[in-house]
Sequence to fold (207 residues):
Amino acid sequence: MKKTVEEHAERFSEKAAEYDDSKSQEYHACASLVIDHAAPEADDVVLDLGAGTGAIALAVAEDAERVLARDVSEGMMEEGRRKAADRGLDNVEFAYGEFRDPGLDPDQRVDVVTSNFALHHLADDEKREAIRVMAETGARRIVLGDVAFFEEPDPDAPFYSPEVDDPATVGTLVEAFTAEGFAVTTVERVHDQVAVIVAERIRELPA
Fold:
C-alpha cells in the first residue's frame, strides 16, 4: 500500500461530498456490473468492502436481507448513511472495516461479498490477503470491480494514479481467487484497465 490506511481515510473524507459526481463513466459502468452480478437473494447478507458512499451497498440493499457496508473513511460513510436515510433503507449498516479486518462479529453470516474500485490501493500481496479474508467469510460469491490490467497500462489513461494506486493484472486476481477455492465464472472488460471479476465458491472451508 503506497499510503497508510489513515492517509487514505483522510483523503477520501475530504472529498466525500463531491465523490459521487466526480467519477468516470467507466466507474459507473463497473459499479452497475458489480450490482448486477452480486444478485443477492431476499435472505442474503452482503458484505460490501470499501463501500465509500454506498454505490453498491444501497443498490443491493433493495434485494438483500442485510448489507454490511465497510470503509475506512468516516466522511464517505456519513454520505452513505445520509443517502440510506433519504431512500428509507434500514437494512444497511455502515461501519469501519478494512480489507484485512472487516470488523464482523465472529458468528456473522455472509453470503455475498462485493467491492468496487477499492482493492487497487493495496499491493499485490495485500490483495491476496484481502481475497483470503473475503473467502473466510464463508460467502458463496465474490464480485470485484476494480482497476486491473488486461494489458500493459497506458500511462495517459485516467484510471491509474501511481502515487496512490497499485493495480494488479487480471491474471493475478484470478489466481488469488482460485487459490482460495473459487472458480472465476465471469471476467468483464470495462476498459483496458478496469475489470469486473465474479468468483463462485467450489471448495468448502475446512472444518
Remarks:
- The helical segments are 5-14, 16-19, 25-38, 57-61, 74-86, 124-136, 170-179.
- The chain has a mean pLDDT of 88.
- The chain is about 35% helix and 25% strand.
